[in-house]
Amino acid sequence: MSPERGANTRRTPVQERSVATVDAIVEAAAQVFARHGYEAGTTNRIAERAGVSIGTVYQYFPDKDAILVALVEEHLDGALAALTPLLTDLVVRSPPVEEGIPRMLQALVELHRRHPALHRVLFEEAPRPEALRHRLDRTVGAAVDAVTGYLESRPEVLPPDRRLAAQLVVQIGETVTHNLVINPRDGADPESYVRETEVLLVRYLTGR
What we know:
Blueprint: H1 16-40, H2 43-50, H3 54-60, H4 64-93, H5 97-114, H6 116-125, H7 130-152, H8 162-182, H9 190-206
Helix pairs in contact: 1-2, 1-4, 1-6, 4-5, 4-7, 5-8, 5-9, 7-8, 8-9
């Protein structure tokens, strides 16, 4: 089995020095993938960028996909940390849909703008091992749960199945912001598409 394509199990670091080494490898992978893409982002390049030997990389990660999973998990942790306060505020404060939907879409835009090249590699070029698919599903599920709670608190929301409505809001918001921020069309203004998406979702949810 090629070391680039083995199982996605990885050794969990315990000592502080080991944790620092793993962090350096994951950060190097982010830079290598963003610059070279997934296929050309080899473990040799990652090791060189991290300033460690290839043996050290394989000491903690059995293959490139295991590094990818760690990198995506780190990315998702950051996304959840950024979005959780917003989603919690929507549920607790329950602003009108005309206010809540734009806030949600703008937060998604800002997340996608942080590392567009890396984001493209992680979610368009790279394969999705089973562990990664499960983690993505859990993350989307948490967002849908929060949006469902928000929609249930708003009397102006018309669709009777609030969870189905929340799934549509999350998927449409993610798809629009991803495609227009990560892969902008020539001359396209992402903000104009976001505004039209706000209109689309608000009209779907409220009929206004």
